[in-house]
Structure formats: structure tokens, C-alpha cells
Design a protein that fits this description.
It is a single chain. 53% of the residues lie in helices and 10% in strands. With 577 residues, it is of the alpha+beta class. It is globular and about 70 Å long. Helix 3 (67-75) runs antiparallel to helix 23 and helix 15 (368-377) packs antiparallel against helix 16.
Length: 577
Amino acid sequence: MFYPPEFLDQLKSKVRMSDLMSRYVSGMKRSGSDYVCLCPFHAEKTPSCHIYADHFHCYGCGAGGDAFNFLRLKGNVSFKEAVLQLCRETGTTPPSMSPEDERRENERTHHRKRLLELNETITKYYEYRLYSASGAAGGQYLTKRGISPDTAKQFRLGFAGDDAELTDILVNSGYSHNELIQAFVCKARDNGQLYEVFRNRVMFPISDVNGQIVGFSGRTVLADPPDWEPKYKNSGETICYTKGEHLYGLNLAKTSAKQSPFLIAEGNLDVVSLHSAGFNTAVAALGTAFTDRQALLIRKYVDEVTLCYDNDNAGRAATSKTLPILEKCGVRCKILRIPDGRGKDPDEYIRIHGADGFRELLANTRNPSAVFLDDAKNGLNLDEPAARVEYLNKATDILTKIANKSERAVYISEVAAECRVSAELLSGQIENATGGKVKYEKRRLENATSQTAVTNIRATNNTDSEAAILAFMLYAPDFIGDIMAKITEECFSDSVFKAVWQIFVKLLADGVEPNEYAAQELPPKDTAKFAAAMRKSREIPFTKERLSSCVHRLKKNSVAESTDIMSIINRTKIRKS
């Protein structure tokens, strides 16, 4: 934390949230003592973004936070940059850092700059190696995959050989062994000797949205690699690189983003193949599940995408998981499905059928509901009554999830005709299904409100208890000693709250009392979640009884979780025996 909390509080008090946001949003309207507007972070027709005196919250996509977090989300800047921007706008001089904070900041800045320089040097070496005689295997692989030389240079593709030449070059250039290990280009054996992580691989440098190299992915060119050698190897996360916050190819695709359609594929090679075939809007996630931060990043450039995932069960599962994340952030989706037997992914399809063939697939993309309904009847003979019943049951579940009533009505008519039942009957079945969910939710809320007295002492679920523990540390620091004696990191199941706990523990170890700005080290989406949880938790009195209840719940759930894991292991052992 580079600025005292007192200064940050004072800085925020100099600007009204509505005045700040009015410079970036349109259609702001007063609602009582507050304001509402169309959310600047996702597409919507009805305003769901509420602006309060000192914070904002969108009830559509979940974006929110204070003035600093708004500037972080809007400008994709760091917390420090947001503070300095608010200082400039309010004519405030930021305080000088303490010598210790200044040292830490300088070290962090130097470390990041040094790592980016190292990554650039590594990239240049891999590029050089690809076009040398010793990189012939890499060049042959790219030619076989139909990657044009221009596209290879555009993506700065390279080759890692089977020797230690790169290590020698980097060490002789002044980089330490520790820096090479931190960059994930080398690992150390037990005797301290370095060996290179990437060998006999075509190298895909990973760029941030501004084109700076932040990591690497390598694909083996060995025809028969050993069992222990994975097809792909990827850099680990560093001060420059977090997998869930970057998209492969976005630095190039953003310049063509307004060309429709904007494509999301599964792998790096798919992206390179698509660009090589002239589809310059393709991007991919980086070896991890698609995240809301990646969705918000895409939303800065487009409001509609086409998902081009692999034609297998894993690709279909990834499609189902990615869709709600994008839609929650206001990005409309279409799905491209490669016909069975014509290629497993965009890369293979383009190599077999060419760019024109892929262009035909793009012309026939459909919305998710149509695709999922096709999947539901795949393999079923609808001439048989039993098959029609099975399809109706699957289709009902899909149709209940369609929010748009007009769209739902269209598909109800189609499914009803296919199953030889009346649209009125199917519509009634869907109404019963959705009505049951509404009644269940209503009963759940009624039960919750009937226990208001208990709720004042006890959190309603595990994540509420986790948030409450952090709120005690912030707003009732006299209880910190009791908390540290009874709660450990393993008690937290929510990834955001666990990350905040880790930050708080580190602050306490340094002799600093936790404060709400410490969470600004997290991505802005996580900061918004934490801030909203703290506002909610602050509404309940910080009593000894409440703390005891939260501690009991966390420790009980932690034990229950480990017991569940052990029971699964034991059941597995029984089955095997």
C-alpha cells in the first residue's frame, strides 16, 4: 500500500461519484437521492447501474466499487494510476511515499520492466532460431499446418531447440539464474544447474493487449514425444502475466474488432490459422477456463462474438461454460459448429476445406438455443414416441433458460411441431417448470426473512461468514487476535475472500493494520465483489456472538469438506477392492 488510507479517504471525498461517472456515461437520471444509468461495462437497454454517493453498482453484470475502482475498470489501469488520475482531476498533490514503500514500488517497477525486457530478448532469440538452419523442424511444422510466413512473423512465432544456447546467451547478457527461473524459461536441477523448459517446440509468444510479451506457450514438434512430455507447455503466472486476464491474439484482433464476426477459439494454433486464412478477429483463452475479466476485456471492443470451439465433448462443455460469462457481461453470442467428420477444430477445418469453406460455416452460425436444441435431439429417432418424450424433457430444460419471450415462443413452436404436440401444451409445461422455480425461490426468501433475528448473529451461508470474518478485521480490529488464533487460510472456499485474507495476513506480519484499500491489489472485478460484501456485512453489528458463529461455521464447513473428500477416497478404494 503506497498511500495512507487517510489520504485516499480524503481524495475520494473531493469528488462526487455521479460527477465522475457523468464524464463517461450517458443517460444518467436521478432516482431519489441517487442516480441510475446504462452500465458502461455491458450492453443493456434498461438502466441497471446505480450510482450512490461514494460508490456504484451494476445489478446486471456485477461491476462496482468506489471512484478508484471505476477508473480501473474504465481505463484498464492499475490502482496507483487511478489514484494519480484522481489527484490530477482534483488538483491534489499525492503524498510522498515512505522510504520503505518507495523502495518496494521501485523494486516492483524494476522487476516488471526487467521481466518484460527479458521476454523480449527471449522472443527475438526464438524468432532468430526459427529462421536458422537449426530451426528447420519448426519451419516444417508451420508449413505443414498451413501457417504463412507473414502470419508467423505477425505473431512473432519462434523455435526452441534442444540445447542450452539460449541460457548461455541470457546469462552472458547479465540476467541472473533467478530471473530466468522467474520468467519460466529455465528450471533448476537439484545441483543448481539450469535446464531450459522449452525444447523442440514451436514457440507462441503471449502478448498483452498493448503488444508487450508477457509469457510463452510452446507446442512440441516431435512426432513421437515421450509420455512425460506434454503436447503444450505454458509459462506460469508472473508479475506481468495472469492467464485469466489476457487473451491470445487480442493485441492484433483489436485493430480489426469492428470487422464482423469477432471469433473466440480454443487454442493458440486455431487463432494463428484463422489469422493466416484472413480471419483477423480471432482470439483464444490461455490454457484456463474463460473468465469474467476476459469477457469484460472483449466487451471493450465488441458486443457480439462467435464461439468456434473444438468439435468434441470438451469443446461443447467449454462452450456451455463460456456462454453465460459473456452474456452476463453484455456480449451476445453465436455458435459455429464444425460438422462431424469434417475437422475437429478451426485449424484442421481450414487446412482441409480452405478459407472459403470456413467462411461458409461462419455464414451459418446460429444462436445458442438453436444449437443446444439440435444437440438435445442428436441420435434420437423422433418417429418413435419414447424418443419424442426424451427430446421434450431435454428441450423443456433448454427453453426455460431463454429469457427473451419472443425467442422462446419461436422455439416452442418448432419443438412442439417436431414432437407432434401442441405448442400450448409445451408452453404450459415450461410455465410449470419456471413457475416451480419462482415459487421455490419465493419460499426460500420468505424463510430467510423470517429468521431476521437469527441472521443478526449468524451469517446465512459460508461465503457470508468468510466476508464477515474479513469485515471484523477491518471494522472491529479488537477481534483480530481471536480471529488469527482460530481461522486459517484453509477455512476459506471463496477465491476472492481467500486472496484478501492472504493480503491481510501479510499486512499484519508487517505490523500494518488491514484496511479496505489493501484489496485494490486484486483485479477490479474482485475488488468490486469484496467492496460489496463489506458494505453488506457492515449492516450487522460486530458482536462476540456473531464472530463465534462465523468461526464455528467456517471451521465446521472446512472439516466437512475434508470429510467429504476422504469419503470419496474411501468409496473409491472399496470399489477398486
